[in-house]
Design a protein that fits this description.
single chain; alpha+beta; Ribosomal Protein S5, domain 2; 4 helices; 5 strands
Length: 132
């Protein structure tokens, strides 16, 4: 891989544009919105989720990954970054497809927040019943 590879990942309302480039230093780095990976996602579960496709393909630390992510919350953004990294790794090496597909990293998680209905407190939650 000589040039950078670009792919988009999505989850809930979050959209992540992922750029994978050949490693420049001795260790590959992950930058998200011009911040370090650990700084942007302080929760270890979100960091673990993002690293799954890299660890599955044994490519952790081999590439510099730059991500622009917007919309949604922390969980949705982490899922979008994971989806974008998995899709970008396919462009780098198509032989990763069976491994990533089996783990479910190539499928966009289509679950969205259910809308609030009229007459209810939320999507399904009723208002408190009052007998008197």
């Amino acid at each position: 891989m000589e040039k950078q590879v670009h792919r988009v990942g999505k989850r809930k309302n979050a959209i992540a544009r992922v750029y994978i480039r050949p490693r420049k230093g001795d260790k590959g780095m992950i930058r998200i919105n011009d911040r370090s990976f650990e700084d942007y996602f302080p929760r270890p579960t979100a960091r673990m989720l993002i690293m799954q496709p890299l660890e599955l393909t044994s490519t952790a630390g081999q590439y510099d990954i730059y991500v622009n992510v917007l919309g949604g919350g922390n969980s949705g953004q982490a899922g979008a970054v994971k989806h974008g990294i998995a899709r970008a790794l396919l462009l780098v090496d198509p032989t990763y497809r069976p491994v990533l597909k089996k783990a479910g990293h190539l499928t966009r998680d289509s679950r969205e927040v259910e809308r609030k209905k009229y007459g209810l407190a939320g999507a399904r939650r009723r208002y408190q019943y009052s007998k008197r």
